[in-house]
Amino acid sequence: MAREATPGGLDLLVLHLLSEREMYGYEIVTELASRSNAVFQMKEGTLYPLLHRLEKEGAVTAYEEKKEGRTRRYYRITRKGRGRLAQQREEWREYAAAVNAVLCMPG
Amino acid sequence: MAREATPGGLDLLVLHLLSEREMYGYEIVTELASRSNAVFQMKEGTLYPLLHRLEKEGAVTAYEEKKEGRTRRYYRITRKGRGRLAQQREEWREYAAAVNAVLCMPG
DNA sequence: ATATGATACATCGTAATACAAGGTTTGTCA
DNA sequence: TGACAAACCTTGTATTACGATGTATCATAT
Q1: Most buried residue, A21, A44, A47, A64, by CB count within 10 Å?
Q2: Residue A39 binned pLDDT confidence (cut-offs 50, 70, 90)
Q3: pTM score, two decimals?
Q4: Dihedrals φ, ψ of B36, to 5°?
């Protein structure tokens, strides 16, 4: 299908969380689980490569900080990242509507 | 994430169409495009292997028929296929709700 | 008469994605 | 002290959808 349609795009979820506040990797995993009522149980082997990729692409920046005795790597969304987020949000909306249309399900 | 959650599952869309009536491959492609307002433009390189897999798994059966001068391979959903359809429909519903929950979007 | 494009099937190689499995360090609590 | 949670990471692997390409038949336009 249209590649952009792939809503497996975890980018969308991660970028959205970071658009609300800075977070570190492990926190993203737990936050996703809690907000989705445990539907999303993102694995670390999925998240960390994803964050590194987003950083390389300039959608997020990162810095390390020691907090509560732990060294954490915090991520902050960039202007570019916000642009992508808006676009992916729209793609998700379109995709979901299309699936529901095919299934004859109400939005 | 949860593997089952992957709504990239085109199986869902294809099985749903076949649950309404028998269809042949090429028809599925055009039907998906028309119902989704051209959001879904499934490629033949995607569909045919998918149908073969569904057949091997016993979710559909197939038979060839000459109609309108063309030899077509029609697919019919099986009981097993209907079971899977119901399950995937539920998974889609759950997945979409979870995404919307994370994004703070209304259903 | 012939060329083009739509119909209809198919396969093969490739890129992206998420995961499983494994590993390290530090802190907390029994 | 030992176990477990927090927090980061990498490598290999399976799945998925796609691009490219191929074949054959039929309709339509030139």
Answers
A1: A47
A2: very high
A3: 0.91
A4: -95, 10
Residue nearest to nucleotide C16 (CA to C1'): A3
Q: DSSP characters for B27-68?
A: HHHHHHHHHTTTS----HHHHHHHHHHHHHTTSEEEEEEEET
Q: Any idea which nucleotide's C1' is nearest the CA of A43?
A: C19
Calpha distance B49→A106 (Å, rounded): 30
Residue type, A48: Y
How high is the pLDDT of residue B9?
79
What element of type H or E holds B11?
helix B10-20
Task: Identify the pLDDT of residue A104.
Answer: 86
Which residue would you say has higher pLDDT here, B6 or B87?
B87
pLDDT tier at A105, thresholds 50, 70, 90: confident
**Ordered DSSP codes for B60-89:** EEEEEEEETTEEEEEEEE-HHHHHHHHHHH
**What are the residues whose beta carbons fall under 8 Å from the beta carbon of B4, sequence distance 6 or more?**
B91
Q: How far is the CA of B64 from the C1' of C3 (A)?
A: 30
